[in-house]
Amino acid sequence: MWGILFGGIFSEQKYEYIGALLVWGVFFYFLFRSLRLHILLGILGLLIGYLWLEHAEDIHISRREELARLTWAFTLTLPIEWEVTTTLSRRANMVRYELLLEKVGENPVTDTIHIFISVPENLTLAPGDRVGFTGKIKALQSNESFDYEKYGWIHRTYGEANAFTFARLKADEGSLRAYIALIRASLREKIRMIFPPDTDALALGMIIGDTHLFTDAMNSNFSRSGLSHLVAVSGSNIALVIVFLSIFLRYFPLRRWGRVAIILMWILVYCLIVGWNIPAIRAGFMGMIGYLVLVSGKKISIIPFLLLTALLFLIREPFTLAFDVSFQLSFIAVWGLIHLHDPISRLLRYVPNTFLLRDALTVILSASLITMPIIFANFQTIALFWIIANLLVAPFIAIGTILGIVSMGVTFIFPLLGHILGYIPFGIFTFILWVSNWIGSYSWAVISAENIAPYDTLILIGTFFYVTWMSFEHVYDTRFSREKDV
Length: 486
Known about the structure:
The protein is an alpha+beta fold. The chain has 19 helices and ten strands. The strands form two sheets. Strands 1, 2, 3, 4, 5, 6, 7 and 8 form an eight-stranded mixed beta sheet that branches. Strands 9-10 form a two-stranded antiparallel ribbon. Strand 1 (78-91) and strand 2 form a beta hairpin. It is globular, with a radius of gyration of 24 Å.
């Protein structure tokens, strides 16, 4: 992973990177003779990661050149046919989709080439729909603060377009993707029946990670108050699914491994419903592993499984590590919870644990302190009152989410009872909105750091070095304690 990270940072200095790696490798090889095998394996890992990144970059460049050839260097207005793959976001009366190109002009597209497209929100599309329109594809353009082109590479995306009119060639019917879209639409409809505007948007975000109903003001307030993580699919969502199903299945005459199989299946279904994206897959995979370890009763470190999950993502697309902020935040947050929880808990031992105050503060600080440098480096802003906001809402997140799920499910069978049960989560969601609006309304709730943006790379590298050091410290402490016990 370090080879991929440094490869992304020093992609323009290929020979300098390899030369420096070899020089420093020889130096450390003769300086630390007792660690020669570790040094050789480290150099080999750095080279493999860098070469794998180079290979992936060559593939992306060839696909971008193929798209440029089909569109005559992005200059022609051509008839285009494509298939919708993902709904990405909804902003300013426009919906942004990711789509797979099938035909440009008279030329079929044989390679995997995606583009981003924005259409008016009244022209609804669903994943799997085949659509045609006439327009011009523009190349993705990077700017000084963000490499938008390489971010597009993570999604196999190499261009963007706007379509204000189009022809639906074929609607997706009968496929798994169509059924999942139908389920999401049904859930969205039931939630909007139970909760009034704004609270329905928050309920959708907290239950299935759907933020399409969020207004620009809500997005701004949640970001400024440090509560945006509430509407992102994470391990906490999977944990709530496991807890809810474990309690529910307890009343059925099932063997233990029968309950386990059902819970694992529903974790997979939940990940499909919320969207088969990196945060959902990571949270689902880690949730399954953690649940199996818990059921088995064995004490197993979660670190190898976390690294294995990260490695699988990087094998598929190595640019994810350097350019996908959500990937960085999700994995670093889990790492922080593992390594910083006990030290921070010891620092806060004098804080009273009334209403689980100390436990909530420990979890918030463990995840937030380790991710703050990455947020700082990528967005050049820091929410000043994120601790206050998270402490205020933390006791109500789980109960609000679970009761929201229950009221939504009951509405399918007994609509009136579902509405009655929805009053409690409605109060919780209203309180969370009040906290975000209250803190987000102050202009000084966020510190801007645009003037130190050139140092963002150093901050990011420092964060990864710190996490690596904490990991080795944990490994050696564990090994020392085992030897002492023996």
